[in-house]
Predict the structure.
Amino acid sequence: MSDVVLTEREGGLATVTVNRPEALNALNQEVLERLASTFAELAADEQCRVIILTGAGDRAFIAGADIAAMATLSAEEARTFMELGQAVCNRIESVPQVVIAAVNGYALGGGCEIALACDLRVAAEQARLGLPEVTLGIIPAWGGTQRLPRLVGRGRAKQLILTGRPITAAEAWQIGLVNQVVPADQLLPSVRALATTILENGPLAVRAAKEVLELTKDADLPVGLKAEVEAEVRLFATADRIEGMTAFLQRRKPVYQGR
Ligand code: COA
């Protein structure tokens, strides 16, 4: 049987592919556990700096939690399954690397929630995104009711969550749900180009920027501003900061060492 989650490495870049195309990459317990262990391993890998997350095939990023698997769950079993889905989203959101969702097709329900946990989202033109849970008699419970309004605002989030109707990639871009929309055949090249742009930046700075953004996302402004200064002070003590500024003044490209 083929592996349900594939990982490819190339320099500082890792590409993680949910590989269940026959079920439009729907997430059952096995896939969720593999995603959790994959992101835990990558989190600990100092060489890895950007992670692309995508789905196998050309139809779906992830068409949601596996409805066949959920259909037989008791209420208490549902709690365990929802907590596992939340744990996977939390882990994706909190890895020190930048995570880019390459949304190659349907990103529905849990698939949309996984994409919301990523730092950046790039969608193929034919992708459809949405939270159709209420059409099944449930609600988005892997963070959808929390991360979507924080990203696009409460009114737009309510539109998606209460109607359950998916939107096009272009509509998703208009409301800020995705960062970029590209033709399907340009998706992976565009995402790799985005990854390369990030990889060329100071690695400690990129990591610190994500860390401050994540740690302070629910903080009051004074707390957030303090965290920002503390991180900046630590960066000023690094060789990379000196290299970045010296290279600018010498009109050359910086060569960062990650220290
Ligand atoms: N869970 C389990 N299986 C799923 C799935 C999901 N979330 N989404 C798709 N699949 C399976 C289908 O059951 C089908 O399997 P089969 O070939 O064994 O019958 C296969 O993937 C292909 O899907 P199909 O529905 O035949 O494709 P389609 O082109 O007609 O429709 C979708 C595509 C995405 C619109 C449709 O599959 C869909 O609505 N999926 C559920 C989306 C959803 O509600 N997700 C949120 C769950 S909380």
Remarks:
- The pocket of coenzyme A is lined by residues 23-24, 26, 63-68, 106, 108-110, 132-133, 136 (CB under 6 Å).
